[in-house]
Amino acid sequence: MGGKKKLNLKQMERQQEKKDEEEKEKKKKEKAGPPKEKRQLSILPPDMNDKVAGELKRMNVLTPYSVATKFNIRISAAKDFLEQLEEKGTIHMVSGSHSIKIYKVD
């Protein structure tokens, strides 16, 4: 008559596996702890001093992303910073397109 049908063995196994996976995911979320803090990005590029010059010389290739992550600045500020360094003659452009430019230290 009415009511829920009896599940076969395969269906019961799948249901149990799904339940186990959900419990594992729940435990992982609990272990993860609080979310990471977002760090404030600076809008201004760093001042060119010996420390910054040393960091740039150690980097094989300079891209806006690598400079932005290294000095904790925005990518737009990193692009401007690299263009300023190129004008000064500190670095030169190796390759580039309309979206990304790759620089190397002289």
Kindly provide the name of the CATH class of the domain at 50-105: Mainly Alpha
Beta-strand proportion:
5-15%
H/E element order:
HHHHEE
> Would you identify the regions where 5 or more consecutive residues have pLDDT less than 50?
none
Number of helices, where a helix is a run of at least 4 consecutive DSSP H or I residues: 4
Known CATH architecture of the domain at 50-105: Orthogonal Bundle
- Strand adjacency order, main sheet: 1-2
What would CATH call the homologous superfamily of the domain at 50-105? Winged helix-like DNA-binding domain superfamily/Winged helix DNA-binding domain
Indicate the overall shape. elongated
Look at the helices and sheets and give the structural class: mainly alpha
How far apart are the termini?
85 Å
- CA-based gyration radius: 27 Å
Report what the structure shows:
The chain is mostly helical and 106 residues long. The chain has a domain at 50-105: Arc Repressor Mutant, subunit A (Orthogonal Bundle), CATH 1.10.10.10. Helices cover 52% and strands 10% of the residues. The chain contains 4 helices and 2 strands; from the N terminus they run ααααββ. The chain has helices spanning 9-32, 50-58, 64-71, 75-88; strands at 91-96, 101-105. The protein has a two-stranded antiparallel sheet with strand order 1-2. A hairpin with a 4-residue loop joins strand 1 and strand 2 (101-105). It starts with 8 loop residues before the first helix and ends with a strand. The mean pLDDT is 86.
